[in-house]
Write a structure and sequence with these properties.
Residues 30-368 form the Orn/DAP/Arg decarboxylase 2 C-terminal domain. It catalyses: meso-2,6-diaminopimelate + H(+) = L-lysine + CO2. Specifically catalyzes the decarboxylation of meso-diaminopimelate (meso-DAP) to L-lysine. With 418 residues, this protein is of the alpha/beta class. It has 2 domains: 6-32 and 280-407, Lyase, Ornithine Decarboxylase, Chain A, domain 1 (Beta Barrel), CATH 2.40.37.10; 34-276, TIM Barrel, CATH 3.20.20.10. It has helices at 18-25, 34-48, 65-73, 83-91, 108-117, 127-140, 178-187, 208-226, 252-263, 276-279, 312-316, 403-407, and strands at 6-7, 10-13, 16-17, 29-33, 53-58, 77-80, 99-101, 121-124, 144-151, 173-174, 191-197, 233-235, 269-272, 283-294, 299-303, 322-324, 332-338, 347-355, 361-364, 385-390, 393-398. Strands 4, 14, 15, 16, 17, 18, 19, 20 and 21 form a 9-stranded mixed beta sheet that branches. Strands 5-6-7-8-9-11-12-13 form an 8-stranded parallel β-barrel, surrounded by 5 helices. Strands 1-2-3 form a 3-stranded antiparallel beta sheet. α8 (208-226) links the parallel β11 (191-197) and β12 (233-235). α2 (34-48) packs parallel to α9 (252-263), α5 packs across α6 (127-140) and α8 (208-226) runs parallel beside α9 (252-263). The protein is globular and about 70 Å long. The protein starts with 5 loop residues before the first strand and ends in an 11-residue tail after the last helix. The structure holds ligand LLP. Residues 58, 61, 79, 102, 162, 199, 202-203, 237-240, 273-277, 312, 316, 370, 374 line the site of ligand LLP.
Length: 418
């Protein structure tokens, strides 16, 4: 089913005409479908079935409070990488007991906060981090559950910027040295070893690298068992890709079946950290055509959204589908969709055949993940508003930023005496 159907030549978000949303709330505007998010999450949860485990949504993909609140209600855990993300989860009604804390650079303050609220587990990425967590836990009289993020050295065959499982990446602990690091963890006070985790990259469209990584992780679990170190859970990270254009990633269910097969007969629970595959296709970005600027070489459609609103095309040459939300009488031509930011790299799409007039509203599909969360205020642009549609209802879940938001906390220098 389509969560953004076209009905009588008008594009909808569930049962809400996107033209109405653009008119009421202005553009650029992120619109998410509640049902798309729920269905995508439930595909994971249902596939897990009765197997012990937890689906920890990767907050970085889309951290809007309403999105987190919805997922918490559906029984999600959360994968966080900062104190800010942890605060968001708590504010949205999520339980810290269902939170795994990932990331290479956890600060003293963040670890202390995570221990205070009682996160489920720290996914630890280095020996110095183990020492830091142990020292802080000891000073607080607490015990920290830890898992080591190992680097299984498999090639995720995705964009180099979002591939994380190779030994030259900054992430994780080399799986070959992991047994020694586990022994080191065992020697430190106030740490409780509970798991092994890995995350090999993002937007993977083939499950082979995931399954290879899992094989290596399970071999490590066996090595650890032999050393008397018991592992309760394996966390295989996130990374399952989505269709932006014509990619054909495995269905969540099929992927999970293969993963669970590998865990058969083992007494370990399964944790996962999906982000993109839960929210990417649940969101679109609406933008209005400001000017049409045909030139001798290229036709530019200058729109009101820019790289600050959605940096994925500029940063990863990511492809997003662009369509006019309404009918158009204009002749179809090839257009570059570009924003107002003063950078040549500020584009959203190249060479798209579209029928366009100034004032038309365009929808950029599949922008629900790493869209708003990677947006910035570059060029002193206020960040977009966000809406969740639910049937025929639309909820404003983030106001458009104002100029006051933009300068919050800034100050002028004192007046000089001259
Ligand atoms: N767990 C860890 C430890 C991660 O680093 C990530 C993503 C995830 C889970 C979630 O992965 P997902 O299921 O979303 O693929 N900004 C890039 C993606 C960066 C992903 C970073 N880590 C993009 O827009 O493509």
């Amino acid at each position: 089913m389509s969560y953004f159907p076209r009905i009588a030549s008008q594009l909808y978000g569930e049962g809400v005409a996107l033209s109405d949303l653009a008119q009421t709330h202005g553009t650029p505007l992120y619109v998410y479908s509640k049902k798309a998010i729920s269905d995508a999450f439930m595909a994971y949860k249902n596939a897990l079935g009765k197997h012990e485990g937890l689906i920890c949504y990767a907050v970085k993909a889309n951290s809007n409070l309403a999105v987190l609140g919805l997922l918490a209600e559906l029984g999600a855990g959360f994968d966080i990488v900062s104190g800010g993300e942890l605060q968001r989860v708590i504010t949205a009604g999520g339980s810290p007991n269902n939170v795994v804390f990932s990331g290479v650079g956890k600060s003293h303050q963040e670890i202390q906060f995570a221990l205070e609220v009682g996160v489920k587990c720290f996914n630890v990425e280095s020996s110095p981090e183990l020492e830091r967590i142990s020292a802080i836990a000891t000073s607080m009289g607490k015990t920290a559950n830890i898992s080591l993020r190992v680097n299984p050295d498999v090639d995720a065959q995705t964009h180099p910027y979002i591939s994380t499982g190779l030994k030259e990446n900054k992430f994780g602990i080399d799986i070959k040295t992991a047994p020694q690091v586990y022994e080191f963890a065992q020697s430190l006070p106030n740490l409780n070893i509970t798991g092994v985790d890995c995350h090999i990259g993002s937007q993977l469209t083939d499950m082979t690298p995931f399954l290879d990584a899992l094989d290596r992780v399970l071999a490590l679990v066996d090595t650890l068992e032999a050393k008397g170190i018991t592992i309760d859970h394996v966390d295989i990270g996130g990374g399952l890709g989505v269709t932006y254009r014509d990619e054909q990633p495995p269905a969540v269910h099929d992927y999970m079946v293969e993963v669970l097969k590998k865990l058969e007969g083992r007494n370990v629970s399964l944790m996962m950290e999906p982000g993109r595959s839960i929210v990417a296709n649940a969101g679109i970005l609406l933008t209005t055509v400001e000017y049409l600027k045909p030139t001798e070489h290229k036709n530019f459609a200058i729109v009101d959204a820019a790289m600050n609103d959605n940096i994925r095309p500029a940063l990863y040459q990511a492809w997003v589908n662009v369509e006019n939300i309404g009918p158009s009488d204009a002749t179809a031509q090839s257009w570059d969709i570009v924003g107002p930011v003063c950078e040549t790299g500020d584009f959203l799409a190249h060479d798209r055949s579209l029928s366009l007039s100034a004032g038309d509203v365009l929808a950029l599909r599949s922008c629900g993940a790493y869209g708003f969360t990677m947006s910035s205020n570059y060029n002193s642009r206020t960040r977009a508003a966000e809406i969740i549609v639910d049937g025929d209802q639309a909820h404003l879940v983030r106001e458009r930023e104002s100029f006051d938001d933009l300068i919050k906390g800034e100050a002028l220098l004192p007046k000089s005496n001259q």
